Amino acid sequence: MKKRRKFITTRIIALGFMIAALCGTALLLLPLAKRPGVYVSFTDTMFTAMSAVCVTGLLTKPLISTWSPFGQIIILLLIQMGGLGIVTFTTVFMLLLNRRISLKDRMLIRDAYNLDKIGGLIVMVRRIIKGTLIAEGIGALLYMIVFVPEYGARGIWKSIFLSVSAFCNAGMDLLGENSLMDYTGNFLVNVTTMCLIIAAGIGFPVWWTIQAEAGKIHEGRGSGIPLHQRIISSIRHLPLYVKIVLSSTLVLIAGGAVLIFILEYDNVHTIGYLPLSGKILASLFQSVTTRTAGFAAVSQAGLRKATAMLCCVLMFIGGSPSGTAGGIKTTTIVILLCTVISILRERNETELFSRRVSGNTVRRAVAIFAVSFSAMLISLFLLCSVQPGSFVDCLYEVVSAIATVGLSRDFTGGLTTVGRWIIIFTMYLGRIGPISLALFFNSGRYINLIGYPEEHVSVG
Questions:
Q1: How far apart are CA 412 and CA 9, in angstroms?
Q2: What is the DSSP string of 81-125?
Q3: 363-367 average pLDDT score
Q4: What is the number of structural domains in the chain?
Q5: Domain range holding 156?
Q6: Do the domain assignments include residue 39?
């Protein structure tokens, strides 16, 4: 018998992002959304809307000189919607309208954030909204210290836009056509942007865990246990997921910054002309922004090939689950590496931090990596087939799109019409996830009722 097709979570999310992009395109096509005398084709309008809702940041037209204040507001709303996720954004509207959140809605929220429990989800959504608004508000106030004296009253809007974009890892700004390259040596702008990127990139559940552990440390003041011992004990008792996220984030950012510093030290096209402190700050920023943020403090086209390849790796890995970042996620790459190490040591289980990772988790990590890497290769092949330019530039563009980063080697504006549609689909695919797209066309869930005989196959 034919099984009934069900709109599972992945289908709702996939359709939600597409509908949001189409609605954003329709609004941006209005004459009110563009500056006087500016013409924007349907392809470029769709490209901008998809880039905003997928929090990617790639643009074929300069944002500041193309879109009017109304258009900028539409783009900012798309960024905020894409950063929080369609499910969370919809839930917020339902709460504002005092609509009842059904069991189906709660299950949808649970699946969207990859959680195990269904209890307390509405409280969690409220905490996410509250935390987002506080973080973006603090970021905007810090930016105003720099931009209000420079731009006057316009600096307020520029600060708000940049803060929301940085927290959502969108990579868009209203400062000009050079991203943040005019502020390469500005400590406040760079550090504020990096903090917003990292805070949102580690994922919302990590926030609550850190907050809870900090509360326990504070409550233990009268126990007679020294502070450093309480901190060490708290770190040891962190969930495995949180340990993986924090340790991998630290290693990737620090390791990436060191390698970029070494590779670009004397490159006058990037950081070679900066003083030592500027080189360190720019290298650190480049390492952080490749975690799917997309802001550029140095010329991406000026990066050496080895640095560009390193940035592609960092972009492909991306941030952590349940946050605003893209990529295959830090937990995926860590589990894969630990699985390889376990195989080399002839162990039957994947182990890290004295814990064993379930077989289902390992298989899902393998599937995510394999499908994402395959999707990237297909997009790269298609783009190279229709787009003039070097292979490195095409690779950088495709990885940036599928990992929802937004960094480009001055390549996006020169894309052909077909090339632009390839990148549009790649951005969409990267935001919803290749696995989600595969599940979108799945006709139903099947249970294995038959077990086949096992047979060994030679590999490697």
A1: 32
A2: HHHH-HHHHHHHHHHHTT----HHHHHHHHHHTT-S--TTHHHHH
A3: 88
A4: 1
A5: 9-187
A6: yes
